[in-house]
Structures are given as structure tokens and as C-alpha cells.
Amino acid sequence: METTSSAIGYQPYLDYAIELDRHDPLAHFRDQYLIPKTVDGDPMIYLTGNSLGLQPKRVREALEQELRDWAEFGVEGHFNAKHPWYSYHEMFREPAARLVGGIPGEAVVMNTLTTNLHLMMVSFYRPTPSRYKILVEQGPFPSDMYAVWSQARFHGYDPNDAIVTLHPRDGEDTIRTEDIERYLVTRGDEIALVMLGGVNFYTGQAFDMERITAAGHAAGCVVGFDLAHAAGNLLMHLHDWDVDFAVWCSYKYLNSGPGGVSGCFVHERHAFEPELPRFAGWWGNDPQSRFEMRPEFLPQHGAAGWQLSNAQILPMAAHKVALDLFMAAGMEALRKKSELLTGYLEYLIDRIPGERYSIITPRDPKQRGCQLSIRTVDDARLLSERLLWQGVSVDFRPPDVIRVAPVPMYNTFEDVWRFAQKLAGGEG
Ligand SMILES: Cc1ncc(COP(=O)(O)O)c(C=O)c1O
């Protein structure tokens, strides 16, 4: 291992980081989280919030509250618990919508991500003989690919024909918005559904959801996004952008714990279309008539009408704590800090001498969230292992990329400096 006094080890950069932390209006939020420790007992430099966000300290108490209420009330907890379980999901109605720029009623928290993606496609992928294709980006997360393939097959189409992949231009790593628009102008009449990630998990590219939705709609397509890497990361306005639907998970940037509940957005335009096909369950039924146990399904207005089952209280209790912190910090303030944090990371990486590292994530802050995907000529797996040994958590994605995500909620500018220092091979 190199331990040279690397070229980015200049004290002024560290002083600058410390100064930025000192003036960070969100700095106090870090204290709300449990930061994993190194073997020496120091806080790790945790840069994998894009994969699994850290545990808010208050989660334990929130879970214990539900366990106490369960022990004390049994089934009566549905109505007598501190947060009655019968209406528990309603606590997310407003904050979940606010998180993605929706209006209350456009968002619901339920199930898990891939499940919700399927539920949305049941309603919004409505292929016809002349318009049956699904447009996806190159290299979507495999679960998304399996979901769209199986949906195409479910409707009797050959996925090799029905799934259309958008590629970057030769020699480029990310897809240009104008190329997506051009595709939709020329071939959009074949596309039933445009289904992209809000941020691609591998490259970190944030797609221009507003322009893509407009182009998709102009071509007569339905437009949906998987926001797994966008929720809690980007500032979004799904309602104003007219996005048809979106789904996200809560265990990455939203810090709600492994396998946590998922969010789902359905635009108000589709809020009350009882004729929309959907896979129904009793929790999506109008609550007034839910216990009449009628055979016919009467969907609730809005996204809530897609619920299947009664609320998953324990993961939702964790999500409630985590989401409250987002509401307290505010997405605008988080995004402002995030641009600075990632910009600082980019600046320091660019100053590492030599050609060992290249950033494949777009340079334009509008086209990325907090993650930078760094390609290396070294063995990327060994590099991530070396960094972990040095107390830095990043992740490796084959063949040659490490993903690094300084999150504004709990990472510091000093974290970024120390990471960059170690990446360069110096102390830090
Ligand atoms: C973009 C994307 N889609 C889908 C998934 C799968 O999510 P889940 O296992 O919650 O269904 C993930 C998980 O990391 C993801 O990053």
C-alpha cells in the first residue's frame, strides 16, 4: 500500500472541509444516526448510504413502542396503540408525497419495491398489438429487468422484442436526454411504457424526469420511474412533471432498515379510475366499507387504492422515524448540501495525480445525485477491500467501478476529504 504524502493531502483542503462542516446548517442531523465503528472504535467513513442507509437512533424506541403496544393490547392495538395500527399507513400520506413532490393522496407506503413495480405495471403497462414495447435504460438494476421481462411475457410478448434498451453513445457511459427524446419522437408510437430509473444504480446518472415524461407523453406513452436511488437523494416534483407512476424503496437514502417498506406514487390524474385494471386487496378498498366484507372491490381514491394488505407496522415504525428526519431537514436543504458535498468529492478526486481513476457519473450536478461512480484501472474489488480495512465503506460493482455516496444527512466534508486522501494512497 502506498503511503506517500499524496498530492491531495494539502492541509488547506482539510481546513476547508472542516470549515464547511462548521458552517453546515444540517450538521446536527449526524447525531441522530448510529455510525458503524472501525476495529479501532472510530466512526467509519460510511459512503454506502446508496445501498443501505444508517440507523436513526430513535428507531429502537419506535420499535419498542410497537412491541410494548402489542404486548399490552394484543388485537386492540389496532385502535388503542399509541399510533393505532388500523390507520398507521395514513401517517405517510403527506410526508411520502412531499418527499417526491407529489400532493397528498398521490403517494402510499406499502409492500416492497419490486412488488410495487409489478403492481404499477399491472395497471399502467397496457400493451396493444401496435404499441406493446417497454423502454428501459441500459444496465437497469436486475430486479427491474426481471420485472419488465416477466410483464412482457405475462402479456404474451417475446421480451427480446418487447423490451427496448436505450444505450449511451459509443465511448460514453451515460445516456443523453436528447437521445431519449429523439428515440421517442421517431419510435415512440411502438412504446407502451417508458420505465427508467430516476438515478441509475451503476452510473449514478439522474435522468431528466421532466423532459422524459413530456417526451413520452407527446409520443402517447405511459411514463414511470424506479426511484430506488432517487428518493431521499434528489429534489423531485413528480406531480408537476406529470409522471404517471413511480416506486421506491426506503432502505437506501431513506435509512429505514434492511428490507424496509416501499413507496409508490400514482399521479392524481389516475387517482380515481375504477376501470383501471389492478391487482386488488382489502386494504385498497374504501375504508368505510372494508369491514362489510362485500365481494366487489371499491378502490380508495388515489395511490392508497393500490394497497393489498394491512400495514406492516414494524418496518413502518422504522420508516416513520426516518421520514420524520427528512421532513425536519427538508429536501431542498439536503439537496443543497448534497451538491456541495459531491462537488467537493469530485474536486478532490480530480486532483489525484495520474490516470488511475475516472468518474463515470455525469459532471453536471443536475444529472446526478450524491453518488459518484469511479472507474479504476486497479482491481476495484481489492480497492474497496483496502478502503474497508482503512475504515471506509464504499461498494464495488463489477467489473471496474466503486460507488461512493456521501449523503447530506450524516456525512461530513471531512469524511469526503479523508476518503479522497485514502483513495489517493495517502494517510487520512
Ligand atoms: C434500482 C433498484 N430496483 C430494484 C431493487 C430491488 O429492490 P427490492 O429488493 O426492495 O424489491 C433495487 C435494490 O437495490 C434497486 O436498487
Please describe what this structure looks like.
The chain contains 14 helices and 15 strands. The protein has 428 residues and is an alpha/beta fold. It has a seven-stranded mixed β-sheet, with helices on both faces. The protein has a four-stranded antiparallel β-sheet with strand order 11-12-15-14, with helices on one face. A two-stranded antiparallel ribbon has the order 1-3. Helix 10 links the parallel strand 8 and strand 9. Helix 8 runs parallel beside helix 9. The two termini are 14 Å apart. The N terminus is likely disordered. Bound molecules: pyridoxal-5'-phosphate. The site of pyridoxal-5'-phosphate has 12 residues, from helix 5 and helix 6.
Can you describe this structure in just a few lines?
The chain is built from 14 helices and 15 strands. With 428 residues, the chain is of the alpha/beta class. It binds pyridoxal-5'-phosphate (PLP).
